[in-house]
Protein: Tetraspanin
Amino acid sequence: LSSGAKMGCFTFIKVMMILFNLAIFLSGGTLLGVGIWVRVDGESFLNIFGALSSSILHVVNVGYLLIVIGAILLVVGFLGCCGAQKESKCLLMTFFSVVLIIFIAEVAAAVVALVFTGLAETLLTGLVTPLLKEKYGVPGTFTNIWNITMTKVHCCGLNNYTDFNNSYFYATHDSYPLQCCDMQEPCNSTLAAETDVEGCFKQILEEIRTNAGVAGGVAAGIAALEIAAMAVSMYLYCRLDEK
Structure:
């Protein structure tokens, strides 16, 4: 290619890099704003997105999650946009490094999720089951979260109804939660065993497996964008030496 063609190609990729990272920057700002809104005025969030968001809001802590993701996107978008605009090798290399770290973390998380699903279930059982025995049935947020989750997901406990054996709820009501018996009364051990409602962990895993194709496609798309962003930033970085 002639020097003019090379310069035109460089300029085109530079402009695309700026636009791409500007979109990332704006997306990060939006997520950060929503995260702050959730933390400051969570009631409005619940009113808009419904009752199910209550369990999500407390279990996943949506506000902090959005703030963290938004802040990361802001930093990434800023580094990429300014690095391309100012033609700064330092900013471009920093952008490349940050995206590479995120990419490696995502791959590691995917491997852990695939390999250690059984371990995750064991750990959750060891942590959550004692809480169900001690706190479920006590008026408050914990009971409300589990009631909403079990009703919406059609599940019972973390593993099944036996999670409530020797629990505060069973000692108080002499029965299992109605969700463990498909909302039939009296929810005793015989009816709970007959209805055999699955635990919430298994139900959530089943939902993930059902939508694995969609989740995998989204993950592959994100990974492809990250690889493309790293390739473009490295191309601009290397081309700066030739200018």
About this structure: DSSP finds eleven helices and no strands in the chain.
